[in-house]
C-alpha cells in the first residue's frame, strides 16, 4: 500500500491529482483523509523519499515504502515492506526506513550496466542534465561516445564531414544539402581559411541524416537556391581509441543554445560537442601530427595544449587557426600538464599554464596584447590535477598547492596546503590519475591509481582540513557539472567501464562505507595536568538515522591506562596512522537537526583522543559539529 501511495503521490504531486489520492486513502479501515491532508502527505512523501502506512489502509498492518530512482531522479518503481502491528517496534522505525531506502537503491543498482565497449572510461561529462561517457569499442579499434538514458547507454552517432572551397554564401545549421538524389542535414559549417564575402572560404560541413548515396566533387545546393562547391565525397567521423579526455565549456556565438563543450584527448583532433553533434577541430602544421591533450576556452579563444606549445584560435572563432585571423602559438619550454582560467588583474583574465615543474600566466584579451609571464619558482602540476575552485589548485611535488591571487599585478602566491600530511603525499603524489572539485562542499579532490584520494576543504581564508578516502571502485577520470536546478554533480569513470555518481547514496555501489574521524590529542588547554575524564558531549547535525561507534583512549593511547569497568574491544587498523587498541561504545542517533550525544568517559590521563566510526551501507551523511569534554582536574604530572 505504501509503495502504491508513494508512486501516486510523486506521479501526481499536485492538488488535482491528490483528489484521487484521497479516494485511494479513504477506502482503508483507518483514519479517513481529506483531499487537503492527502496533498500534504503527497508533498511530504516526495520530499523525504519514503511513505508510511500506519494502519490507515488495514487495521493492525504497518508498511514502509520507498522509491527506486533512476540516475535522473525519476521514480521507475517502488518497494514496500509490511509488518503486523504486534511485531512493529516504533523505536526501530527510522532504522527500518533507511534500510528499505538502501534496499531500493540496490535494486536499481543491479540494473545498471557498464558503458558498452572495452578498456577504461576515457572521459566523463555532465552537460545539460545528461551524462556522457567516452570509451573504446569492444574490439579496441575506435573510440565511441555514449549518452545516458532511462533505458541505458545510447551510442552517439558521429555523422560525416564533407569539404568545400571557393565558397561565398554558406549553409547554416538545419539546412538540407542536396546533390542529385543525395541529401543530408547541415549541423555545422566550419571555415578553416579564406573569406566567404570574397568567395574564397574553405572548410568543411558536419552532416547528419545522410541519405540517397554519396556526395561527390562538384556543386551542391541548399535552401534559397544557393550553391556550394564540394571537394569530394563525405567522410565518416571516427575517433581513434585511447587517450584521456579533458573538457571546457564555452559559448562563442552569444546565443542561449550555443553553449558547447570543447575537448581534447591527446590522440584525436580537438573537438566541439553539443550532446548530439560532434565537430572535429583539426590544427594543421603541428610537427609529427601531434594532437592536443588539453582544451580550454579563454578570452573568447579556444586554446589547445600540444606538447610544450599553447595554440589558440582566432578571436571569437573556435574553428579557425589562421595566424592572419589572429590565431597564434606560444612556446612554453615544458610539456603542458594543465590549463586553468583565473580572474587575473583589472585589465583582463588570466590563463594559468602548468607543466610538471613550472607555471606560466597568460594575461590579455587577444594576440594584440598577450603577456606571457614565466612564473619560475619550481611550482607545477601533475597531469590532470589542476582545478579551478575560487583559486587554482593543483598537486605538484610539494603537495596540493593553491595559487592565491595577490593585489600586485601579475602575482600569484603558491601556498602548499598539505604540509601536515606530507608522508601521505610523498607516497602517493606520483600516482595521481584525476581530480575534481565540489563547489557545494568547497573541496578540491585528487585521486590516485591505488584508489586513495584526498578531499581538501578550503575557503577564501585558507585551509579547513583534509579527508583521506579509499574507493573500492578506483576512479580513472572525473568530470564535474551542475544540474539545471543548481545541484552539483561529480561523475567518475572506472577501469572496468562503469560511470559512478559521487556524493550521493549511502554506499560504495552497494558496499558498506567505513568512515572514521579521529580527533587530535586533546589536553583541554592544561598540559601536564592529570584529569579524570567523565563525559564527552558530541554535537551532531544530520537528517536521518545514524549508527556509529565512539572510541576513546587516554595518555597518548597508552595501553597502561584503561577506562574503569568498561567493556573493551579491538579494532585492527594495521598500516594506518592510528592506535591499535581502542575502547568502543555503540550509539544510535535518530536526528533531524542539531542534537547532542553524551558519551560516558571513565579514565584518567593528561590528555585523551576520540574516534567516531561508521561502517554501514544505509547511514546517510551527518556532521560532528563540536565535542565538549567534562573532566575533574587531579594533580600535576611528576
SSE map:
Layout: H1 2-12, H2 15-26, H3 35-48, E1 51-54, E2 61-69, E3 75-84, H4 93-109, E4 118-127, E5 130-136, E6 143-149, E7 152-155, E8 160-167, E9 176-179, E10 182-193, E11 201-211, E12 218-222, E13 226-230, E14 235-236, E15 246-250, E16 260-264, E17 270-273, E18 278-281, E19 294-298, E20 301-306, E21 309-312, E22 328-331, E23 336-345, E24 348-355, E25 359-363, E26 371-375, E27 387-388, E28 392-396, E29 399-405, E30 412-416, H5 422-428, E31 432-438, E32 443-448, E33 452-459, E34 462-470, E35 475-482, E36 488-494, E37 499-501, E38 513-518, E39 529-542, E40 545-554, E41 569-570, E42 581-590, E43 595-605, E44 608-616, E45 622-636
Antiparallel strand pairs: 1-2, 2-3, 4-5, 5-6, 6-7, 8-11, 8-13, 8-14, 9-10, 10-11, 12-13, 15-16, 16-17, 17-18, 19-20, 20-21, 21-22, 23-24, 24-25, 25-26, 27-28, 28-29, 29-30, 31-32, 32-33, 33-34, 35-36, 36-37, 38-44, 39-43, 39-45, 40-42, 40-44, 41-42
Helix pairs in contact: 1-2, 1-3, 2-3
